[in-house]
Amino acid sequence: MDVLQLARWQFGITTVYHFLMVPLTIGLSVLVAGMQTAWVRTGEQRYYRMTKFWGKLLLVNFAMGVVTGIVQEFQFGMNWNAYSRFVGDVFGAPLAMEGLVAFFVESTFLGLWIFGWDRLPKKVHLACAWAFSLATIASAYFILAANSWMQHPVGAEIVDGKPTLNSIWAVLTNNTALAAIPHTIAGAFSVAAAFLVGIAAWHLWRKRKTDDEHRAVWRSSIRLGGWTGIVAFAVLAITGDVQGKLMFEQQPMKMASAEALCHTEQPASFSIIAIGDVTSENCEDVKTFNVPALLSFLAHSDFSTEVKGVEDLVTEYQARYGTNYPDDPQLGELAGKPIDYVPNLPVTYWGFRIMIGFGAISAGTGLLALWLTRKNRIPDTKWFPRLALLSIATPFIGNSAGWIFTEMGRQPFVVVPNPSGVDGVWMFTAQAVSRISTGEVWTSLIALTTLYAVLGVVEVFLIRKYVRGGIDGVIPPKKTDEEGKDELAFAY
């Protein structure tokens, strides 16, 4: 493989790995803050125990997320310095906001929350929990604003051949970002919801025949997770529809590749599943099961809109952005070669469906959990906790598939041209890579992948340890004070 392919593999591996931690941290931090709020308001010990138990798992995951996330921004200088030089004036602003504002707020208030038990007044300590959780959302907002600029560049003008920021407000209020943010946050709540349902269902079933003093904790957790998952999936569906309509306007090739739509159709059908090779030049070789006119509705809210196919879009892209890469040594083997404007169709086609399908499975498991625990019932069938544990993985897979589709669907661009924006504010991925040797990229790729594998083992070990330990594993044996009340004292 050449430098470009290796650099893309490294960025893909490290980014997908890091994003396994991010949504769980975002979703779980808000839910834990909600649990603590319920404890402060009601004084019920089940909410205190919920806060302690789920807060411990949150901390393990947050620590791993920080470690793996540090590499992400360094990669822009390591493997993508040509990209950094081209867009740094614009792209650096939201990244700086994320680092200087959101991340430091996260770290500060998380530290106060960890060490503030029994030291800070209850309401002040609770405020720290909410400050930390809201800061994680703010951090996601700035990162998504930066990514959305790559998907739909706004607020910039070309000066001396490079994009120059002329409106940070335009970048932060980019309609692509405003659609991506609620969609991503809803995906984070979906992950946290499945996490609660799976672990709580296992604990609830494990001690179903004994007098478990923590049963109320597991029932409350499983029902909180169930309702959160259902609401999150509804928000995902609504915001996903908004994103689809923006994609139709801003990145029509991504829309066409998501459907492996070779030819322009009016109205266009939505493909549920395809049998055959979606990359085949002869579309008739692929058998699809379609919903008539649904793609037209998803694209433009009516059932008669024309949706352009891959072949027609390739012609348009060639006319506007050229048929061949520039004859530039920076491009290596691609210099002067024809530009392939078609993304990897199997990845985009199936990634889009995996994203939707696994998200629906997660919501369905949450709905099932609510039904089986209604009216104080305790599920006594062995299949349910197993299903709930397996379902923890489904929103993780759905989130990852969605990001892979989003990023690979914009190829061959790293900065996608804005159809109504300033000419020249776009960049081919092949132009963005650093001028380094394959050996250097292989070294960092192997080193980082190995390091991330070790960190993955550590996280699984710690999560498994605290999950199996349950409430008693994070809260020491209770003592009884002179008034006969439970005194539960524990510090992280």
UniProtKB/TrEMBL annotation:
Membrane topology term: Multi-pass membrane protein
Keywords: Cell membrane, Electron transport, Heme, Iron, Membrane, Metal-binding, Transmembrane, Transmembrane helix, Transport
Transmembrane segments: 20-41, 53-71, 91-115, 127-146, 185-205, 217-238, 350-372, 384-405, 441-463
InterPro entries assigned to the protein according to its UniProt record, in alphabetical order: Cyt-d_ubiquinol_oxidase_su_1
Organism the protein comes from: Amycolatopsis deserti
Subcellular compartments: Cell membrane
Main location as per UniProt: membrane
Family note: Belongs to the cytochrome ubiquinol oxidase subunit 1 family.
Domain of life, source organism: Bacteria
Name of the protein this chain belongs to: Cytochrome ubiquinol oxidase subunit I
